[in-house]
Write a structure and sequence with these properties.
The protein is of the alpha/beta class. It contains 16 helices and 17 strands. It has helices spanning 146-150, 176-190, 209-219, 227-232, 261-271, 286-305, 329-348, 376-383, 404-411, 429-433, 446-459, 471-479, 488-494, 497-501, 530-543, 567-578, and strands spanning 55-57, 62-69, 81-87, 91-95, 102-106, 111-112, 115-116, 122-126, 154-158, 202-207, 251-255, 353-358, 367-373, 390-393, 398-401, 516-522, 547-553. The model is unreliable at 1-16 and 21-41 (pLDDT under 50).
């Protein structure tokens, strides 16, 4: 991506597959808050990259540096540092007198495959499940980065703060994770004269909360919402000549991005919760009524977005004879996506076919049950075992999905309670994403608060209602301000991709959006609605992004889902298709 620095907005946002091995963290460092730019001489750390401090792996021909602090006034040096791994062909080096380090300069003519030291893409993993921290590397390992380096990539591994790294004196909740990621990108551009590779071809990749945070970073490039945070840690805002630097990136790979959190409570109940009747959705509970009210509120929000399909047709939900707004052009579009996913599965695979369910979180190594289906007809019969919602044409090997309810009950059960993201007792993981400090989870979703406010009197008639769940708790949390003086509205907007992509929000066209996207999601996951990734894809395309490679993967859940092949291999091939040679 050609980034024109003069057009930057200047107003006052599993493990092995990522090449990441488990790191260790030291004692948190409470950095000095500062509003200074990168030229502030009082900064605690230099933003200059030291070209005399390279280490070298002679066996694999790799130069690397580990533990370089990437901001001038870090809040947490144990997180805000990065490592960089470079194929030897991209540097010309001489050994230093200490016998262990090297002085190197970029060699733009050195090549690995189709890339050169001038054109090599820079890939950055974002492995932050549940919006957690990403530990920086603490030692060198070639095996953890070998596939990327052998493909000609430059691999940059930044430590990032997250919802689980706060201390008693420092909150690392949103938007600090993405702020750190942006600061690392700015550091690379600040030092582009001494580093090989193309800073116009920076590619982020991540899964789940990592996919969400690289999506946020990819949609919020150079957003003014992040400037106060970046300045407070001494991120590189200008280059050595005073020209503004950018934190926009060229491309984003997101597997199962759990994002669009501001409306996720509503979409979860519309997409999945309205078909459930146990636990918090059991009849006679206030949360059952709450589920219905959330589901009813979501179509109003969805219709306000004004999303359009590839033909320019406006997508909307309308009332239906049964269920909550299970009609309209948006509903038809959703069913089309589900049908396409199933037909891709039938086209990609042969029978007998064994499906193994996911038995634990990504990277856990746990598997669920395995079932082998001898024929397609056997598999379709399984899908229709509770109700008929799929018809199959053996002559064309294609299926037709008749409705959402049958699909959800068969393949995508709601596995989270009502209030799946912004929990009514602040008990969901996402409440910690927006915490105000250590052990201080917070409400963050005004749309949820509005539903509670409108129906609070009714909920109070149920025996399991607690006044602590009322709208006053939301209002109290929304009013609190963080260490740079911003309230919850500011922070939630900074972490909402649609804030930057949709004309329904004030952030529309006030950021630099990545030009290339690859989005993959397992259609069986109960972690978020189908609507999350579908709306992200639609919003990107409506914004004018021409390259959005999108697929929902049948028979896979919350994982690095791929229709065929290996996730890392597919990612490397995709990077080759969206970067310059």
């Amino acid at each position: 991506m050609e980034i024109n620095r003069r057009t930057v907005i200047r107003s006052a946002a599993a493990l092995a597959a990522f090449g990441i091995a488990e790191g260790t963290a030291g004692t948190a460092f409470a950095g000095t808050s500062s509003s200074s730019s990168s030229s502030d001489t009082s900064s605690a750390y230099s933003l200059e990259f030291d070209p005399t401090a390279w280490s070298y792996d002679a066996t694999n021909d790799v130069y690397y540096q580990i533990g370089k602090v990437y901001v001038a006034n870090p809040a947490a040096t144990d997180y805000e540092n990065l490592s960089i791994y470079v194929p030897g062909a991209y540097l010309t080096a001489t050994a230093n007198s200490d016998g262990t380090t090297y002085t190197a300069k970029a060699d733009p003519k050195g090549t690995v495959g189709d890339y050169s030291g001038r054109t090599a893409p820079i890939v950055i993993p974002v492995n932050t499940p549940g919006y957690a921290h990403q530990s920086p590397a603490t030692s060198y390992s070639y095996t953890s980065v070998s596939q990327y380096l052998e493909a000609g990539h430059i691999y940059v591994w930044p430590g990032l703060r997250g919802r689980d790294s706060s201390t008693s004196t420092r909150s690392d909740a949103a938007p600090w994770g993405v702020t750190d990621l942006k600061a690392a990108v700015r550091f690379l551009r600040y030092n582009r004269s001494v580093l090989p590779g193309s800073t116009d071809d920076i590619v982020l990749f991540g899964m789940s909360g990592g996919g969400a945070q690289d999506t946020v970073a990819g949609t919020s490039g150079d957003s003014p919402l992040y400037f106060p945070y970046l300045r407070s840690i001494g991120a590189a805002m200008e280059d050595a000549h005073g020209r503004p630097l950018s934190d926009a990136v060229n491309a984003v790979m997101a597997w199962c991005p759990i994002t669009n959190l501001q409306e996720a409570n509503l979409s979860y109940e519309w997409n999945m919760g309205q078909f459930a009747s146990t636990s918090t959705r059991a009849s006679g509970t206030w949360t059952s009524a709450y589920s219905t009210d959330l589901a009813k509120a979501w179509p109003k929000y969805l219709n306000r977005l004004g999303l359009r399909d590839e033909h320019g047709r406006r997508l909307a939900l309308t009332e239906s004879d049964s269920g909550v707004y299970l009609a309209g052009s948006y509903y038809d579009h959703l069913i089309k996506v589900i049908t396409t996913s199933l037909n891709n599965f039938l086209a990609d695979n042969t029978f007998p076919y064994t499906i193994t369910t996911q038995g634990g979180p990504p990277g856990s190594g746990q598997t669920g049950t395995s079932t082998t289906y001898e024929t397609v007809d056997d598999y379709i019969a399984y899908l229709n075992s509770a109700s008929t919602w799929v018809t199959y044409d053996s002559a064309t090997n294609t299926a037709t999905v008749s409705g959402l309810e049958g699909f959800v009950n068969s393949q995508k059960n709601a596995n989270k309670p009502v209030g799946a993201f912004d929990g009514y007792s602040r008990g969901q993981g996402e409440n910690s994403v927006f915490a105000m400090g250590l052990n201080a989870p917070s409400h963050f979703a005004p749309l949820t608060r509005d539903v509670i406010k409108a129906n609070e009197a009714t909920y109070a008639t149920y025996s399991d209602w607690n006044t602590a769940y009322g709208s006053a708790a939301y209002d109290s949390d929304f009013a609190q301000k963080d260490s740079v003086g911003k309230d919850m509205g500011w922070r939630a907007d900074a972490y909402n991709p649609l804030y930057f992509l949709s004309p329904a929000f004030a952030g529309y066209r006030r950021s630099q959006v990545a030009r290339h996207w690859r989005i993959r999601t397992g259609i069986m996951q109960g972690d978020t609605g189908n609507t999350t990734e579908i709306n992200l894809r639609l919003a990107l395309e409506n914004y004018g992004i021409r390259d959005v490679d999108f697929a929902t993967v049948w028979a896979q859940a919350h994982t690095m889902a791929e229709r065929t092949g290996d996730a890392t291999t597919n990612f490397i091939s995709w990077v080759a298709s969206v970067t310059k040679k």
